[in-house]
Structure formats: structure tokens, C-alpha cells
Amino acid sequence: MSYSNTTTVQIPVVVSGATGKMGREIIKAIAKAPDMNLVGAIGRQHLGEDIGEVVGIGELEIPVTNNLEVVLAQAAQESQLPVMIDVTHPSIIYDNIRSAIAYGVRPVVGTTGLTEKQIADLALFADKASTGCIIAPNFSVGVILMQQAAIAAARYYQHVEIIELHHNQKADAPSGTAIKTAQMLSELGQAFNPASVQEQEHLAGARGAVCGENIRIHSLRLPGLVARQEIIFGSMGETLKIEHNASDRTCYMAGVLLCVRKVLALKSLVYGLEKVLA
Amino acid sequence: MSYSNTTTVQIPVVVSGATGKMGREIIKAIAKAPDMNLVGAIGRQHLGEDIGEVVGIGELEIPVTNNLEVVLAQAAQESQLPVMIDVTHPSIIYDNIRSAIAYGVRPVVGTTGLTEKQIADLALFADKASTGCIIAPNFSVGVILMQQAAIAAARYYQHVEIIELHHNQKADAPSGTAIKTAQMLSELGQAFNPASVQEQEHLAGARGAVCGENIRIHSLRLPGLVARQEIIFGSMGETLKIEHNASDRTCYMAGVLLCVRKVLALKSLVYGLEKVLA
Amino acid sequence: MSYSNTTTVQIPVVVSGATGKMGREIIKAIAKAPDMNLVGAIGRQHLGEDIGEVVGIGELEIPVTNNLEVVLAQAAQESQLPVMIDVTHPSIIYDNIRSAIAYGVRPVVGTTGLTEKQIADLALFADKASTGCIIAPNFSVGVILMQQAAIAAARYYQHVEIIELHHNQKADAPSGTAIKTAQMLSELGQAFNPASVQEQEHLAGARGAVCGENIRIHSLRLPGLVARQEIIFGSMGETLKIEHNASDRTCYMAGVLLCVRKVLALKSLVYGLEKVLA
Amino acid sequence: MSYSNTTTVQIPVVVSGATGKMGREIIKAIAKAPDMNLVGAIGRQHLGEDIGEVVGIGELEIPVTNNLEVVLAQAAQESQLPVMIDVTHPSIIYDNIRSAIAYGVRPVVGTTGLTEKQIADLALFADKASTGCIIAPNFSVGVILMQQAAIAAARYYQHVEIIELHHNQKADAPSGTAIKTAQMLSELGQAFNPASVQEQEHLAGARGAVCGENIRIHSLRLPGLVARQEIIFGSMGETLKIEHNASDRTCYMAGVLLCVRKVLALKSLVYGLEKVLA
Question: Which residues of A touch B233 (CB under 8 A)?
Fold first, then answer.
């Protein structure tokens, strides 16, 4: 009798949006992870080319395709529960998630821009299929810490505003992280930013967007940066600012891999990385 | 024969908005200036009290009044050309300027929020009366330097946005300085901020106000700060930011006094401190 | 039978350093506090003048003196336990605290720059006299929040540095707040900032001062700002920054008054505002 | 008679430090430049591997070697004047430059940390060989603009300090750019930063390094960022800050390629990108 060597059980992973900036970093991260195996790469560029060659880490024997359904069907055949990481555009991601769940592939989703109704529908769908799904407006632990520090500070401040800056290829504004932050502050039960004077906006939009409990969000889009968010609190004579800056998409990889590992144990939809952090 | 002692000729100065934060600093600055003499103080608080006592520098024998006309009429009687410094609210300043010019009192105006049409009307009026008038969206030399540095940088960047933060008792948004900055950049003949993707604003106003050649301005209002403006340029792999921060209204005094001295030689309306800088 | 009117019991307060920038704000704050009564003002300028007139709030019937002993002796005669707030220079404050304790006057001290040995000596002295004393490197709640946010973040980051900027009349560097911050992080039991390369300092001092567990502090001194501290954490692809900015000394008043009220119940020396916060 | 097709004359380029972060970006940039041809790649990692494969752009038929002499000798055989771009470590770059010049290969050097004496020696050597050489402490146009804006502002400010932050694999401190900036400000003939009080450094190095006319430089080293420099001016009530942030090494490529094209026309050593900018 012979026994095969026990090898690490690998999670089969499909990456949708594999040829975008975020997707390429994810491909590299999965290739390095000993407990994951890339089984599919969906993208709109470099069709037919090997995704490993495309991202510069050598052949992975996975060609880029734009046919998500076929890849999901194949992944469903794997002996281990498969996961789909999706970092595409808000306009197609809703359907991608539904397709994945239909095939029993667990979605880990990083693109924001889904409406509250869409999230609620997906939650219902995942629940019915008893299939875990994680939607993270942001995969960075630093962002979670920034949000938690803001919640702690809010007790002492009546005034707060949010600025978020992203590269100019980001489609949605405000960012999902900024909206989430404003919602977290709004859930504290405080009223923020009472008006001192009668304000006048001479140019429409100058004062940004209002979110939650009267919290303003200001969104800038410029080349030369990846993602930055500043939460600024003010009171008499002082300001307190908490700022997270992602200079490189590698800062999201720890969070992405963590979600891939955690989603397998879930049977419903979870929104926010902080829900799966230790 | 007797000769009088030659004393420094003093410019008679009236301050409108004398009891506000900016006005109080101006009163102190004029009291210290050897070539200026305070002859009137218009304000809405501390009526009847001595303005020197109100601001904490000892009696100046000038009671606070809310009757501008009476003060202007008195100033017009002075043997030297008088100047009115006005730092009140945009809603009353148009009329104040017209009144001053009517009495031959030269206005030096620091409150912004005047529309282009109002400025054009005042220019015509000052011209007809051959009376100098200076409207400065900002009295700080640092702000002028920031704007000039931005003009020099704009040649090399296609993308730029402006953030301005002010204390929460500022009535108008965007600030006059930010609008002026956007206009100065727009006059360079470049097109700024070409769109890379189809942007979607999920919350109205998130992307700020558009000014001039597609330049976004974002206005924050918080206690704990006086005035800050950031001009951020972006291109591949880098950003260049020029930021001016006023922590104290004393930073405007050098510019205010300079304008008081310069307006006497003018016969028309001038817009912008940089026009009278060496 | 007659009953006296009950009036709020007022804490007799002496302010040492009353004519400095911080001291003047404190005088104004005490004058407004219904539960405090100013009984002495020690300073080096405006000797003999009424301190209320000096700071611009009208006569308080307390002349400025430079004789601390006399003022402490008088305060000791009050029917309520008196408090001395001291915001003078590190070089004289040690003796001031000992004198106050000797007279049974409770010190609330805001000037930093005391050495660890001096603090230990004062703790012993206060203990023997069963007299409360509070030494706060910083009176701002925002600073406490910044420090607590940093402690929470440190778990996730190996790399951190501190920048502090103060007005150019601050005598000591680094600031007490920065040193305290570095000590708080060092007490977490982590090793920070392991070296990646062999560093070379071509100009001595470029890499700042080392404090605690290998944490660098960088101190800037410039006019035009009051006090700012930035704690910057870095890891792969991202940075997290927590920044507190005091634009005005009024931000310290809430903390100062809180300490005056809390010190009466103490019988020993307490170091740090966070120890008396709710 | 037949005529060969005229093809763009290509500059033969050798890259020393090809496998480091900066070097990899340079390899990609040269591969895309129509007027350049990569003829050699010197590095310490991936020896023997094709440099194009190493950086992820496909085979370039140039193997990585650590033998600079051999590569320079080969480049000297080319029919066009060759250029060597060197972005290695300060400790070996002096010798590399001398070797290149000895072979008639024009150096374009980006690593700083050379002493003034070394730069003077190299200038003499290049001069004798009538061979152009460019040493650029910084290849970014944004940095040049920052320095020029600082020079314009310095006229109006007596107080200025510099903060520079780099990734924690940078060997030298302060950065060459910061030192250059301090020198440029010092050449204006002003005295900076007169002392207001007797300063005391309780921890050695807190106040940074002194450079030129009493200008302090503060150097931070953290993962999560590439390169940032802040020049902060201060005067009564205000600060003016000019900040350049490189999030990605692609921001240096325009400057690198410009230097490669410009060095061919030189016969001596030039220090600073601004010397070859239009």
C-alpha cells in the first residue's frame, strides 16, 4: 500500500477583472499563496494570453478569457469549494456575483458602487443558496483602523468632514470606503455639523455630498496617486485628522487573501472587512 | 515766525466690521501703524463701547456705531483722503462700497462673495467718481505666492483640483481665493482634467464645484482652523501640492495696511492684492 | 433666623506664567468659569498692571507680580483648597511646584521639559505632603485621542515615526507630547523599525532623535503655527497617519479647567491628562 | 543600387542597477522609447536571466550580468555614442562613472550620496575626456518645480524647514534632493531661521540636520511610500508648504529619458535636471 504525500489543500480561485491594476496584484498574490490555486482569469485585455505571462511572473497555464460563465462552470467541478474574486466595474459586478453564487462559487468582491438595494438583493440570494459572500468596500487593514479611530474620536467632536482622493480611473464617487465611514459615524446616534451661519453655495457642489447624519464627503480624482482618505474632526482651536494612504495596491493583498480564506466558512453575505478581522 | 512740528501725515481710516474676528485684528494693526489714524468703527456688537477697549488695547476714543453713513460723512470732512476697510458680510458690502465712494472715501474690501456683475458695476461707479478702490479676495502674500507657483506648475500638468478649508462661520462657498485661483489657471489657455473614464456621482455634489476650465473646487467648513487652501496637481506617478495655511488673522495685516497705503494713488477699481504688490 | 445665600463654591486659582500666550488664555478661561476665582497672577511682563486689563477682559483687581512666594502664601489663607496653574519655562517650574506643594497649593502644570528624575522627585514630595499634583505634557483631548489611536494601530504596524511642529518660541525639543507618545508606544512590548539596509547619515541629526523602542522624533520650529503632531505608521503599500493640530490655545482650556477640578481629590502626583479623563 | 530603409537612429543604452526597483522601471521605459536600444543590463539578482523576462515585458535578448567592464567595452564598440544609466548604491557609483567615462560611455546617474569632493573629481575627469555626464539628485520635473517655487517664496519668508520621507530601503540621509534644495535656498544670500529663544535639544538629533544657511532637514524612512518632500515656510500667522510626492517610480522616467537624449551633446559634467530642462 502506498500513501500519497499530503499536500496543502488548495482553494481553487477564479479572478474576475484579472487584467486591471488591482487584478494583476491579486494574480501575483494568489500565485505566492501556498493554500490557493488559480483556476481561472477573466479580463477584457490580453485575451487568450497566459495570465502569468501578462502580469510578469511566468506561465501559469491559465489563459485570459472574457467568458465568466464557462470559467465558473469549470470551477464548480473542482473538489474543493471555489472562490471568485471580483474587482471589475460596478455596472457588471451585480450579475457576476449572482452567476457565481448560482454555480456555488463564493464571491469575494472589492469593487464598490453597488446600491443599497443591490446589496440587499444579493444578501437574500446568498442566504437562499446558503453560500458565503464577502463584499469589502476596502481590503486594507489600515482603512479599518482609520474608521475605528474615527468612531472613538466622534464622541468628543461635533464637527467632521471626509476627503477622499483616488486615481482618475476610478468610476464611482464618493468611494465606497467614504460612504461606509460616514454611515459608521452616523450610527453613533450623534447629530453632526450643526450650522453656525446661513451658508451660501455660489457654485453648486462646492460643499460636497451629504451622507448619513449631515456628513460631507469630498471626492478628488487625479493621476499620480492610488487611494487616500482623510477624516477631519474640528472643535474650538483644534483639528484631529486621521489619514490613510495606499501608495500601492499590494496593501490590499493581505485583506484579499484573508477574505478568500474566511468566506468558505460563511453561509450568507457579509459586508465589510472588519467583520472578518480577528 | 513759528513753524509747527512736522508730524507724519496720517491716513484717516474707518473700519466696517470692526467687531468681527478679522475687524478686531485690523483695529489693532491700525492702532500700531504710525501713518494711520482710526476715525470710525462700524460694527453690530458692543454698540457705544470704545473700540480700543473692546479689542483689548486700551481706549481709542472711537465708539462703535452701526451707522455707516454718519461715519462716512464725518470721514469726508478730514483734511486727508480717507479710507474705509470693509470686512463684513457679502450681502451688505455692495451697498457699503457704493456709499463710501459716494462720500469720496476709498474702499479697501476683504469680504468676498460679490458676483461678477456686482464687481463690474462697482468698477464703473469707481471709475466715474475717479475714486480708487481695492477688492482683495485675500490679503495674504503667502496666498499670492501659492497662486503664482500654481501658474508656473500648470504648464507641466494636465490635472489639478483645489481644496479649501475655512472656519465654520464663513458664509460663502467656494472661497473667493479658490475661485480666483481657478480663474487664474483657466486664463492660461490649457484644457484641464480630461476624463479617463465615464464618472458616476452616486451622491450629488461629491465631485465638488466646477469652475473655469473644468477645475474642481472642494469646500470644507470646520471649527478649529482659520483658512487653508491646497492646490493639487497630478501626473503619472506623482503629485505636486501647494498649500497655504493661515493659523491666525495677523497674517492678513501686512496686506491690509499695504492696500490702505496704495489705494490713495488709484482712480479706479483694482481686483486682487497681487496687483499692488511690488 | 437667617440663611446666607448659597453661592457656588469657587476654587481659588493662581496662574503662574499669566502674561505668556498660554497664560493669557487661561486667565480668560478662569474668568468665565463659574466655579473658579482668580486670586493671583504671576508673570514677568506688565508688572503691577491689572491682569484682566492686560488680557483685554476688563479689571479683575488682581495685579501682576513676579513674587510667587507671596502669592502662594496668600492663597494658602483661602478657605477653599487653592490650585496653582503653571505654564512657565522648564528651568523654573521645578522650584515653583515644590513651593506650591509646600504651601498646600495644588499644582496643575503644563510646561514640559522636566526630566524623569525631576518628575520622580516631585512625585515623592507630593506623596509625603499628601497633596495632589497634575503634570500634563498636553492639555488637549485631541492629543489624548491621537495617542490612543496610535496605540490601537501599533498592533498592526512594525514601522512608525513622529513629526512635531511648534511655534519658534518653544524652548524644548522634542516636545513633551512627542516623548510621551513614543514612550506609550514603547510600553506595548513590540520592537519597532527593524533596519532594512545599512543607513548612512551624511549630515548629523538628519534621522531625528531616537526615543524609547527605536522610535524617531523630528522637531520643527516655525512661526505661523501653534502646535502640530503627526504619527505616521507604514507597511507594505500603505501609510496611516494620525495628526493633531492646535491652531489656537483655546483648545487647551477644556483640559486645563478639567485638571483644576480633578486635582483637588488627588493626594499624589499624576502624569498625563488621560489619567483624569472620564 | 539599393538603399537601406532609414530607421530611427537609436542610442545604445546600458543600465546599471537594472534589477532594483528604479532600474526595472527604466528597462521598461527604454524598451518603449523608439530612439533607444538596450544593449546591456548590470545587476546583482537574476544573473544570466533575460532582463526583459525579469521585468515582465518579454524577451529582450539581454542577459543580466554583474560585470560592468565587459558591458562597457561592448557598448564602446557600438556605432552610436552609448549612454550608461546608473541607479546603484552610492558606495560603488563613483567607480562606475569613472569606468564608463574611460570607455567613452556617457553616464546619466540618479543615485545620490556622492560627496562634494567626489563630484568635483568626476567633473575634472569628464572634462579631460570631453565626455558629457549628467548627475541628477532627482529625475522628476515636479521636484524641479517645487524647488523653483521655494526660491520664489524665500524672498518673503525668514523661516523655512524641510521634511523628506522615503521608503525604508533608501541608504542615505538626508536625500540628495533635500540637500540640493537647502543649497539652492542658501545661495539666495539670505540668513534663515534667526533664533527667537534659547533652544534646548533634550534628545540629540531632534531638531534634524543643519544644511547651508541654517536650514534644518528632517529625514523619515518608512515602508508604504516612495518619496516625498515638504518645504515649509513660516511667518506671522501663516505657513506656506510646497510638497512633492512620488507614488510610483514611473514619475522619474520622463526625466531619465530626457537626460539620455541631452547628455550626448555635452562635453562635461552637469549636476541637476533643471540644467537640461527647456
Answer: 222
Q: What are the grid coordinates assigned to D52, written together?
A: 526583459
Q: What is the DSSP letter of B274?
A: G
**If pLDDT is split at 50, 70 and 90, which confidence band does B4 have?**
very low
- Residue keyed to cell 534644518: D216
User: Which domains, and CATH codes, for chain D?
Assistant: 11-135+250-276 (3.40.50.720), 141-247 (3.30.360.10)
Q: Omega before B82 cis (within 30°)?
A: no
pLDDT of residue C194: 95
pLDDT at A278: 61
Q: Rounded to the nearest 10 degrees, what angle do helices C141-154 and C176-186 cross at?
A: 30
- If 0-12 CB within 10 Å is exposed, 13-18 middle and 19+ buried, where does residue C187 land? exposed
Helices (H), C191-264: 253-263
Q: With CB atoms and an 8 Å threshold, state whether B171 touches A234.
A: no
Query: For B56, which of C55, C225, C251 is closest by C-beta distance?
Result: C55
Q: In sequence order, what are the residues at sequence separation of 6 or more whose Cβ sits closer than 8 angstroms to the Cβ of residue A127?
A: A267, A268, A269
The model's pLDDT over C38-78, given as tens digits with 9 standing for 90+, comes to: 999 999 999 999 999 899 888 999 999 999 999 999 999 99
- Residues from chain C that touch A235, judged by Cβ atoms under 8 A, are 142, 251
Q: In angstroms, what separates the C-alpha of D160 from chain B's closest C-alpha?
A: 13
Q: 518645504: which residue's cell?
A: D231
Binding residue per annotation — D6? no
pTM, full prediction: 0.83
Cα Rg of chain C (Å, integer): 21
Among C168, C210, C235, the residue with its CB nearest the CB of D223 is C235
**ipTM score here?**
0.80
Cell of A211: 451622507
Distance from CA of D85 to the nearest CA of C (A): 23
Render pLDDT for D156-213 as a digit per residue (tens, 0 to 9): 899 999 999 999 999 899 998 999 999 999 999 999 999 999 999 999 999 999 999 9
Which residues of chain B make contact with D148, given a CB cutoff of 8 A?
Answer: 152
Task: Quote the minimal CA–CA distance from B174 to chain C in Å.
Answer: 22
C-alpha cell at B197: 473614464
Residues of B in contact with A113 (CB under 8 A): 200, 202
More confident residue, D116 or A19: A19
Contact A25, A226 (CB under 8 A): no
- Whether A180 sits among the annotated catalytic residues: the reply is no
Q: How far apart are CA A53 and CA A63, in angstroms?
A: 10
Q: Which residues of B touch D (CB under 8 A)?
A: 140-142, 145-146, 148-149, 152-153, 156, 233, 235-253
The C-alpha atoms of residue D140 and residue D22 are separated, in whole angstroms, by 13
